[in-house]
Design a protein that fits this description.
CATH class of the largest domain: Mainly Beta
Family: Belongs to the copper type II ascorbate-dependent monooxygenase family.
Helix content: under 10%
Number of domains: 2
Structural class: mainly beta
CATH architecture of the largest domain: Sandwich
Keywords: Copper, Disulfide bond, Glycoprotein, Metal-binding, Monooxygenase, Oxidoreductase, Secreted, Signal
Shape: globular
Enzyme class: oxidoreductase
Radius of gyration: 20 Å
Distance between the termini: 39 Å
Number of strands: 25
Subcellular location: Secreted
Number of helices: 1
EC number: 1.14.17.3
CATH topology of the largest domain: Jelly Rolls
Length: 350
Amino acid sequence: MPDVVANHVDDYLCTSLEMDKDKSTYITAFNPSATSKDAHHILLFGCTEPGSEKKIWNCGEMVNTDDSSEEDYETAPICASGSTIIYAWAMDAEKTELPNDVAFKVGGSTSIKYLVLQVHYANIDKFKAGKTDRSGLVLTTTSNPTPKTAGVMLLLTDGAMASHSLEVFEVACKIQQDIVMHPFAFRTHAHKLGLVNSGYRVRGENDDQEWTEIGRRSPQLPQMFYPVQKDITIQQGDYVAAVCTMYNTNSHVVRIGPTGNDEMCNFYMMYWVDGDQLLDEDVCTSSGPPRYYFGRDRHLNIDKIPDDAFHIPPPPNGPAPGEPLQGGHHMMMQHGEQSHKKQHRYRYIN
């Protein structure tokens, strides 16, 4: 960020960097230069065209009308065209290094002509004190081509949860493209109420369906990309599914939304492919509760979901023994599925 000044908590500000159009650049590592005291999260996007030609612009869903603002940034989308997610950071996560021979390919002949950095500001105390912000990412790059190209698939939901309730936010999409993806890292994201996020490859049909875990982690821990522990491939015909378990400790409904007081259910899957043909449809969404659950998708057999799908894992992906979590302990929830005239029990055990 080029010495920006955020004027409101939950401001989303963007800045862009034009890539070399004549030759490709290969990104092999991401090193955050930010603190969670200032930034709620940082996202790095690849764009064919940035959302604005301005040096800094407001690129969030929040539109502030506070006339006392010292800065008035133009409001525009992140990308005007060709948007793809490259990297995400939150909660003081550490550096992410890609495996050998794997890199994000940008610039040159690719559709990514610009990198756009988005920072969601969680605190404006330093701006009130007259300071500016240079939060960002230090990228390790090379001009040497790699045989494998990295990409990111994002699964996220809409939806809402009632007060003082345990809820699951679920999303699944079928891979329609002729592609073979090798997931190697995952990242979970929720706000204050998230207990555990899990991602799965779903292969096969009916009683032969198999759910294979890609990753599972408490989103209350540093939100970097963590290694996938299994050698998994995802190909045409497979489903990619994610579930976020949350407990609403508030006395009011909490919805999915952009502010720190809203919630988010996000599961990021970083993968590589041989060559450079990445997934065309790299964002998978659902309407979330109460409109969408796995059990209402006739292609998914909820009886095949692993028993530990809704359990917070032990360290390093879960909190240390005795460390508190929102939501309490040993809660049970009945998850009704009207369309299937059956009930599916989800368990939370830490």
